[in-house]
């Protein structure tokens, strides 16, 4: 690709010195260094743990979508964040016109894929809640994921080659920008793409995320007199979280003892005692919904500044260097926060990450037996 592209920006690359003061370039260097390190390590760990150990407790469809989301975050980090880090550290663009062209255009591919993948995760969780007895097939999920990548690649090819875009280094922001916005047809195309693949997905994710948050709240705190109880809803003592398996003497009467001696019970249909696994399943459903809600919330927040930038650019396209830089920095939040959210909201993945960190600190290889204790030892691990 680099040898076949006819670069038209050799004269524009002459002024490659950065025009940012040290007061701005030093914090940007620190930010992109931390963001790139966390994004590369975190998303690589997500891919390795999910492919090798299935260390993320999600349903099959969301499990595959999370893997593709981690891959898209890696592509965006390599194509956008690492060149920016090299620019701020060196005080100018030193990577040549080829990589400048890629930094200006290649982020279109993982950016659109990120938006569509998070939208697919949100809609799938909403579909599962609305139709719990209609599970999607694995083939359907794989075909949908392939279509997402094909659509993202098509947008990248049109924006890059159809409009014959070139790239130039902007010393005011330390970023290579595409010339697709300069022509009227290219500006109109990017405006339509922003409305279809940025505005509409963000609005849809916000509405769906509100619904999922409400459902997650109802799952965690069910009403004792509501209709959910008649269908076998867990009634928890929420002052304590379940920390150990139920004792053998408690299994028959359908109760458990939580941390600090807190007691809880769960009622089945008709007022009968349910099983302990029913309560565990409800807790896992709540954790899965919490993972989806937090993922979508951070994603909407990270893309909000880019949406503001696009609106300001349509109103007044001049003197928007600061907003462009803020939008690029905010998009990077999504790439390195996602693994942290998986660690905090997904117990299985959090156990895996802690096991890896303990193995690194002890300089010993972490085996699968250390990461996933057996069911008989879970009470010991919890205590």
Radius of gyration using CA atoms only: 24 Å
SSE pattern, N- to C-terminal: HHHHHEEHEHEEHHHHH
What is the straight-line distance between the termini? 56 Å
Give average pLDDT, whole number: 75
Unreliable stretches, pLDDT < 50, 5 or more residues? 1-12, 224-274, 364-383
Say how many strands there are: 5
Helix content, binned percent: 55-70%
Kindly estimate the percentage of residues that lie in beta strands according to DSSP.
under 5%
Structural class: mainly alpha
Helical stretch count?
12
Which strand order does the major sheet show?
3-5-4
Largest sheet: 3 strands, antiparallel
Globally, the shape reads: globular
Which key features would you list for this structure?
mainly alpha, 12 helices, 383 residues, disordered C terminus, disordered N terminus, single chain, 5 strands, three-stranded antiparallel β-sheet, two-stranded antiparallel ribbon
Question: How are the SSEs placed, and which strands pair?
Answer:
Blueprint: H1 22-52, H2 60-90, H3 96-105, H4 108-130, H5 138-162, E1 167-170, E2 175-178, H6 184-220, E3 234-235, H7 248-251, E4 255-257, E5 263-266, H8 276-315, H9 321-345, H10 347-362, H11 368-371, H12 378-382
Antiparallel strand pairs: 1-2, 3-5, 4-5
Helix pairs in contact: 1-2, 1-9, 2-4, 2-5, 2-9, 4-5, 4-6, 4-8, 6-8, 8-9, 9-10
């Amino acid at each position: 690709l680099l040898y076949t592209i006819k670069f038209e920006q050799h004269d524009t690359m002459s002024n490659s010195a950065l025009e940012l003061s040290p007061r701005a370039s030093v914090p940007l260097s620190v930010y992109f260094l931390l963001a790139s390190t966390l994004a590369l390590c975190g998303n690589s760990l997500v891919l390795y743990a999910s492919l090798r150990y299935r260390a993320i407790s999600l349903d099959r469809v969301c499990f595959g979508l999370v893997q593709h989301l981690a891959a898209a975050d890696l592509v965006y980090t390599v194509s956008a964040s690492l060149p920016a880090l090299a620019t701020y550290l060196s005080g100018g663009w030193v990577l040549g016109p080829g990589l400048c062209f890629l930094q200006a255009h290649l982020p279109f591919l993982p950016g659109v894929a990120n938006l569509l993948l998070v939208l697919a995760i949100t809609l799938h969780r909403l579909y599962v809640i609305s139709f719990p007895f209609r599970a999607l097939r694995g083939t359907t999920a794989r075909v949908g994921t392939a279509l997402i990548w094909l659509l993202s690649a098509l947008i990248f090819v049109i924006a890059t080659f159809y409009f014959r875009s070139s790239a130039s280094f902007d010393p005011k922001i330390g970023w290579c920008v595409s010339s697709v916005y300069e022509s009227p047809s290219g500006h109109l195309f990017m405006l339509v793409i922003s409305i279809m693949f940025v505005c509409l997905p963000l609005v849809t994710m916000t509405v769906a995320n509100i619904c999922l948050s409400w459902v997650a709240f109802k799952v965690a705190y069910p009403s004792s007199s509501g209709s959910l109880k008649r269908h076998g809803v867990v009634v928890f003592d929420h002052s304590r979280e379940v920390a150990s398996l139920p004792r053998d003497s408690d299994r028959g009467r359908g109760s458990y003892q939580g941390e600090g001696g807190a007691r809880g019970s769960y009622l089945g249909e008709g007022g009968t005692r349910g099983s302990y696994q029913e309560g565990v399943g409800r807790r896992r459903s709540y954790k899965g919904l919490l993972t989806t809600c937090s993922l979508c919330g951070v994603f909407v927040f990270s893309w909000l500044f880019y949406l503001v930038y696009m609106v300001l650019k349509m109103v007044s396209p001049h003197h928007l260097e600061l907003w462009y830089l803020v939008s690029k920095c905010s998009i990077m939040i999504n790439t390195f926060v996602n693994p942290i959210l998986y660690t905090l909201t997904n117990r299985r993945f959090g156990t895996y990450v802690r096991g890896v960190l303990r193995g690194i600190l002890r300089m010993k290889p972490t085996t699968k037996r250390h990461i996933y204790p057996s069911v008989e030892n879970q009470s010991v691990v919890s205590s």
